[in-house]
Design goal:
single chain, 71 residues, alpha+beta, 3-stranded antiparallel sheet, two-stranded antiparallel sheet, 5 strands, 20% helix
Length: 71
């Protein structure tokens, strides 16, 4: 399955990084139902800056990015 980074939310963060040297603190990847952005969100995950990796908290909804942390 493909994860699609939401261009509307993430493009500005990437632009600030390229144009002003301010790296984004968080980017959220989104997978849509049927892999189609016109459909609803199936799940989201944070993309962690290297060398951090994503960790599920084991408690909250595993389909929501807030249920994960980078460490």
């Amino acid at each position: 399955s493909a994860l699609v980074a939401r261009a509307d939310a993430n493009a500005a963060a990437l632009d600030r990084w390229v144009e002003h040297g301010v790296a984004p603190t968080k980017i959220i990847a989104t997978h849509f139902v049927d892999n189609d952005p016109k459909h609803t969100v199936a799940f989201q995950r944070p993309i962690c800056p290297y060398p951090q990796v994503v960790h599920y908290d084991g408690k909250a909804d595993p389909n929501k990015a807030v249920s994960f942390t980078c460490r």
